[in-house]
Amino acid sequence: KNEVEQSPQNLTAQEGEFITINCSYSVGISALHWLQQHPGGGIVSLFMLSSGKKKHGRLIATINIQEKHSSLHITASHPRDSAVYICAVQALKTSYDKVIFGPGTSLSVIP
Amino acid sequence: DAGVIQSPRHEVTEMGQEVTLRCKPISGHNSLFWYRQTMMRGLELLIYFNNNVPIDDSGMPEDRFSAKMPNASFSTLKIQPSEPRDSAVYFCASSPGGPRETQYFGPGTRLLVL
After folding, report:
1. In which band, very low, low, confident or very high, does the pLDDT at B1 lie, cut at 50, 70 and 90?
2. Between B106 and which of B6, B7, B60, B80 could a Cys-Cys bridge form, CB atoms 3.0 to 4.6 Å apart?
């Protein structure tokens, strides 16, 4: 079993829909990151959170430490949101918090 | 700031050749990470430097891979000899203060080993 899992693996949505991507993990963590990778390949960090909720524009990220679960929400989705969204955790391992990546969720927003 | 700079952006080489990937982190950042991304395995950490010192190289696949950070503004990842299974996108990222802070990714180097 992977230490970081995401669902769904692939997601197609109509423009304007509300989108939720889920991340669950099985290790103790100090922080969780949501990354966005566009078709061109570049990776951008969207959020880093260790508790509660963060919001940036139409994006909202939440985390429940007790349940070891995080969600990324996109409101009023747009075709430019089409990308791969990657959940990554800072795992409490060894001498430092090693990053472990989830497999990614591929999102396609159709006009 | 120019962001994290990687070179080359694309590299095509033949099996057995030496490959050197280069990275310039954001000025003032003291942590540097090398990652590899493949379709099969996704993103994987290869090596993490803090203040130019390798902290975790457990992700380096084997002796064919080596990484150096001679100063705060430059790092290299070398593969010698290269093999077709090394074909991947290699990302360099830097952060201001360590793994617990936001990492800024470079554009990646697409490596194809024939």
Report:
1. low
2. B6
